[in-house]
């Protein structure tokens, strides 16, 4: 179960990072250099107020691969997390990563979350994931 949570967070983080990098690139007409690799970026994570070693582990693993990554944790009690996330999203302040309960499908149906199945179905790890 821990592996699946960490994997889910890592996949989501990586895909969000790809979106950030892909959408933030301006064409200046100059050749690319490694300079862009030194830029820091922040991933905003909405989660419960409960201590979560899986999140710490996932952030550590992500930081190893992307040392310039920073994390902003948006924390709320479990019984208020859904409402907090809905409030953020309704204000256009959408976190990069959300820890959700059964409401992830609701977010998808409302156009607030993406179905990543087509993106990850060719990855070796895909068959080890649980449906959801």
Automatic annotation (TrEMBL):
Q: Which residues form the signal peptide?
A: 1-18
Tagged with keyword RNA-binding:
no
Q: What is this protein called?
A: Extracellular solute-binding protein
Instruction: Spell out the Gene3D superfamilies in the cross-references.
Output: Periplasmic binding protein-like II (3.40.190.10)
Lineage summary: Bacteria, Bacillati, Bacillota, Clostridia, Eubacteriales
Keywords noted in UniProt: Signal
